[in-house]
Write a structure and sequence with these properties.
Elements (H helix, E strand, L loop, with lengths): L1 H26 L3 E5 L3 H18 L2 H4 L2 H11 L5 E7 L2 E6 L5 E4 L5 E4 L5 E9 L2 E8 L2 E9 L4 E9 L7 E9 L2
Helix pairs in contact: 2-4
């Protein structure tokens, strides 16, 4: 019994620096970030990703490309400014002038009503040095990963997915810290 307790203590002690390191890396994301690329460039990247998915749609779904394409473009939001804050197990984010959202890392989901009127479950997680945020709804959702690159740059990887699409639509954007 003593051997098991000692082993558990050793495993816990060895994992603490990794947990602290991940939290420290994610804490680098706290601040105000502005888009470091031209929005036209990002829109082209998004359009290319959407067209790639449209080309893969077959059968019945292929007939709905004309409906899906503008809907995907509409929901592929590009934030010109992010305000992010990591405070312990709390993550707060704000995109442009939208209201601030706050979630606890790894604490299940918190439903919100999206711009389309549908209900989405929102979860945030701390993964290595990145923060991931997932919004799942009945007919799909969105995922965003915030990845610090150094003290002054961040990459945001976004993806939209649906059971009606053969693959997810994904793209990346670069941001620079202003505060």
């Amino acid at each position: 019994m003593r051997h098991i307790a000692l082993t558990a203590l050793l495993i816990t002690a060895l994992s603490l620096p990794a947990i602290a390191s991940a939290g420290d890396s994610a804490a680098q994301l706290s601040g105000t970030w502005v888009l470091a690329e031209q929005e036209d460039t990002i829109r082209t990247r998004i359009d290319d990703a959407i067209e790639s998915i449209m080309d893969q749609m077959e059968g019945v779904y292929a007939a709905f490309r004309w409906v899906a394409r503008p809907q995907l473009r509409k929901f592929a939001k590009v934030c010109e400014r992010y305000e992010l804050r990591v405070d312990g197990d709390q993550f707060t984010w704000r995109c442009d002038d939208d209201g601030a959202q706050e979630r606890v890392f790894g604490k299940g989901s918190a439903p919100i009503i999206g711009e389309d009127g549908n209900i989405y479950d929102v979860r945030v997680a701390l993964n290595d040095s990145a923060i991931s945020m997932t919004s799942d709804g009945a007919s799909g959702g969105e995922r965003a990963e915030f990845l610090p690159r150094d003290g002054s740059t961040m990459v945001v990887r976004k993806a939209m997915y649906s059971p009606h699409m053969p693959d997810e639509v994904s793209w990346t954007m670069r941001y620079r810290r202003v505060q």
